[in-house]
Records
---
Amino acid sequence: MTVPISIFIITRNEADRIGATLAAVRGLSDDIVVVDSGSTDGTQALAERLGARLVHHDWIGFGPQKRFAEEACRHDWVLNLDADEVPQPELVGAISALFEEGEPPLSFYRLNIVTVYPGQSQPRFWADFVTPVRLYDKRVGRYSSSLTDDRVVDGGAPSALLEGAVWHFSFRSFDHIGRKLAGYSQLQTVEKAGRRSPLLLRLRLGVEYPLQFAKFFIGRRHWTGGLVGLRYAHEVARAKRQRIGTMMQARLGKPAQTVEDR
């Protein structure tokens, strides 16, 4: 039986990945909303064929796009997934159980979202993860309106972590890491570059790569991925250093390079 929640997913050119996401939540909700910003690979037709309700909305940044998607949902309780995220059966069961006796006791619930390397079918041993709020009552909290701050604003209200996991296939390939993070950089440049000191950006540029590499390889345990983890940490650190360079160029009035892939 379905539970009284809407599931919303924002997309652009996700035909190769969204099928697994929709299959994982089939039967959980009677209102699965895909908000597409102009796919050219057949994402729209695939989503409709798999039972989603399709809505078109031109891309306006992560926070505003997700706020639009919230408004398109029919239920007050909403679950946000990305098209590259696949909820596992234990988590789907936990969400169903949460609504067995009516509305849940809290307004916000966090999901355990676990990284999967490009080309692999499941997370590595001791994989890194994040636990953002993704299941929530939209009458109480909404996504941030920031272009890049992709999070639910909960006002400090209590939340709980649900059992189970979401497997996150964030990058299609190692080359995709740089292209995808460059897309974030463009939005951050639009939103934040004017508030950053050119001197501080220049200083940060010199230390960004080693700091980010240490953060991902050690702090987020990509050393458990061996050579693949080493390359993953390198590619992410390099892309994040390039982000600072893009912001510095914008602050100094130099044109930034455009990137199609988000």
Note: The chain has two domains: 5-168, 174-251.
---
Amino acid sequence: MRGERPWREVRGELRRIMTLRAYLSGKASALGCSDTPFLDASILLAEALRMPRAKLLASLSEEMKSSWMVDVALRFEPWWERRLEGESVAAILERKEFYGREFRINPKVLVPRPDTETLVAAALECGDSLESQKSAPLRIHDVCTGSGAVAITLAAERPQWIVSASDISIEALEVARENSCAILGHSLDFRVADLLQGFESFGDLGQGFDIVTANPPYLSRAETDGLLGEGWKEPRLALDGGEDGMDVVRALIGQAPERLNPGGFLLIETDSLQSFLTRDILMREGFDCIRAWRDLSGLDRITGGRMPWRRG
């Protein structure tokens, strides 16, 4: 681990650097683990200086102020050392924007990714199509909810839906409840569960789910080991999907038919290379209308299917 830099070293660096642009560029040049090193440095520096990032960027040609020295040394420099060690900006600041809302995170949950917004978009599309065919409010359940980003976003976007969520991690659910209260003003129904285990009775009572969403762990064990070795601080539980990354996906698809209402959808985020295998598993379990939704990069990100309206 890198140690904290001595005060005199930071002060000497600031004396040599004339402008904000030069300071940030120097920091960014040392960051090889990011596609956006200047962005990372500017976000952390703006936070350290307690100023909007837009104001910081508008001041790039200005000289570094001596009054900033304490904040740079005590806040930015330790953060930047952590960034150089592989921690993400979101993990360092313990917050992440998702679908236009800010979520609190910590090392017990997966950092919400922009690609996962595709899961929300797919659920909204499927839910809107179902509403015209049902008189009762839709029931939506998010498994492996982590920070609660998907479930809370769906509840915020469609307040008329009944949204619940579950996770195997009690610590993750504590974060999800906090985010729910901060964003929605109340806590959703969050439950400790291994995927959909414990929800079997809903089918007998006619209270199954209309949509089940999931961003499960889908990295292979080797990929997980590699990322954690590079300094990722997210929990293994949220990353490791077994030898081929598909263990949790297979288990979820196997459980879902007994928990979904007729015409209900199962929507799962996976790596794009796993999409065809996920479609095959959905087909074997009796799903129809199987398709994929693409992320912002044009890659298959969400794979989903619908339970037939009439079974058997």
Note: Residues 7-93 form a domain with the Helicase, Ruva Protein; domain 3 fold (CATH 1.10.8.10).
---
Amino acid sequence: MPVGTQGTVKAVQQRELEELGARIILGNTYHLYLRPGMEVIRGAGGLHAFMNWRRPILTDSGGYQVFSLPSFRRIDEEGVEFTSHLDGSTHVFTPERVIEIERILGADIMMPLDECVPFPCDELYAASSSAMTLRWAARAREHAGRLPAMYGTDQFLFGIVQGSVYPRLREESSRGMTELNFDGYAIGGLSVGEPEETMYAMTALCTEILPAEKPRYLMGVGTPENLLESIERGIDMFDCVMPTRNGRNGVVFTRTGRLNMRNAVHATDLRPIDDKCPCYGCRTFSRAYVRHLFKAGEILALQIASLHNLTFYLWLVGEARTAIQEGRFGPWKSLMLTSLAPRSEV
């Protein structure tokens, strides 16, 4: 799922997202609540109409931003008090208020307020936080049931599993969220600095408990390799800023590994970024031209690289889906991991 934090996927137009096959994107409750604000979005008829996006949108709760940005003031059973990073004004997010905001946004998939603890995190604090996230989830679930969906569309609600890197806490959170019977389930609080093998172990522990007949979403992950390993462990959905953020910084993903388009090795290379990629950039421009654009500071470089990376990510998960349906995911994944392994740029 391409990340459109503020109602836009950076450096990419909505028309282009549709053309490359993005079927759902993300918005961010925290950022959209602060700017442009709920009155503007409500007046436009919801986020879909405001940004002219005709496909599904998932909105995260903004909880991660509250805790990661230097705006946090207080957290307790009631919710979170924070100051706006824009103007210093004070705001409160409760589980109920977040659901109300996401109703106004018109999100197709809503995420409840949760606390994403850092890594490393003391087990005692992780336990207290995870238990509070579960209580918040129950409040959000109940409140969502009292509010009608907006703009004539279904609005589904996922639960978010927390518990840091502690197996007992992850198991308790997974079972607790399952008992609340959400429409789908997310695994949060991973890919925050812990070793990859720990991330995979916690993911597998959760997916063994979370119902397989409902979507299972690993939040904020990750590299192409992370996606393949997590799919093998039962994950259905991902979001990550990596395709667009790395693209804006000159790093592109290909079927044979990463390339840094700023490197001198590409200065006279007239091949496309990836000769098997169907994106507009690969059909139209050479590596040498894209490197020139980056070195010259041209905006077109950011657009080409972002579109290419999103095309690659969507191709990768599409191929994974086909391999699963055809019963050959294991061998296909092994070949892909070998192909994606780091190597010297050529």
Note: The first strand starts at residue 25 and ends at 28.
---
Amino acid sequence: MFEFTLLAKDKTSDARRGRLETPHGTIETPIFMPVGTHGALKAMTPAQVEDTGAQIILSNTYHLHLKPGEALVEKAGGLHNFMNWKKPILTDSGGFQVFSLPKKRIDDHGVYFRHEVNGEEIFLGPKEATSIQNQLGADIIMAFDECIPHPATHDYAAQSIKKTLRWAEQCLKSHNRSEDQALFAIVQGGVYEDLRQECARQLVDMDFPGYAIGGVSVGEGLDLLKKVVEYTAPKLPENKPRYLMGVGLPEDILESIDRGMDMFDCVIPTRYARSATLFTSRGKIRLTNRNFRRDFYPVDRACSCYCCQNFSRAYLHHLFNANEILSATLSAIHNVHFYLDMVAGARKAIEQGCYRDYKNDFLGAYGFEG
């Protein structure tokens, strides 16, 4: 049911071109995964998401567990049927969300926290997170890990990876749908090279079908992000997919592709869209600015998305000023399409053996000075 094939390696970098077969379709990598936390991308229908070129989307275990609950989703025929998305889905284990909560209590078994609505105490551990994801029915599910803050001491991070490794073993033992769900492990260890590599080594020994690097979207910045990927990615199996969690901005993704990562997710495209910030090949623009009031060009003349082919910056400026819901929809369509077009260009460049030229040209036109 699951097979990852490495199709090409770039001649100028560590970038990889791959293909991941899943029960709900093929994923061409490198790929960006739009985030539908509650089982929906904000302001977009599934058909609109598919039209952007999306091959896989991400939903969140923690939020779906709280509402509507995994039992209801399972009764509906699983997450694919529930949200009418026919392509692959990945569910995060909820570790990042749980560990960002106030007043949580962590022990060796998992995390205790309060329900955000009724205040009831809830426990989430590796067995529970795996069971919930088994019921939700996503194609790719994630092991429950401890996501530590930045900065963290070496001693704290060292104790944390011991917990993450124990929990990974428990997730493997608890996983009861290996025939149609791939369980990915998550490498933790903060910004410490020795801990990242040790965590990766032990997880690779457990033989998961895919591996993620977690804990790199907690405020460490691009320079540290690049370093973490540089000394972690080479320790992951070449014949299995590599997923960088929660990343990020275009420059983050392109630099991480350069360093051998395959899969990415982030809420940035849709979140920025709702605040009138749109990505273009020449950099970000804020459509609520007055200078767009009489600008009848599309958001990006180089873009083929539904928004750019049919509407002007002046119209979107008007929609945002009028507080029309359509402003968020059109902007989200554009931003998600922008990200997916960017990684499609990366795939083509890797096949042609000129990825670094593509990255440098893209970021140069975009106006990023790294």
Note: The two ends are 40 Å apart (CA to CA).
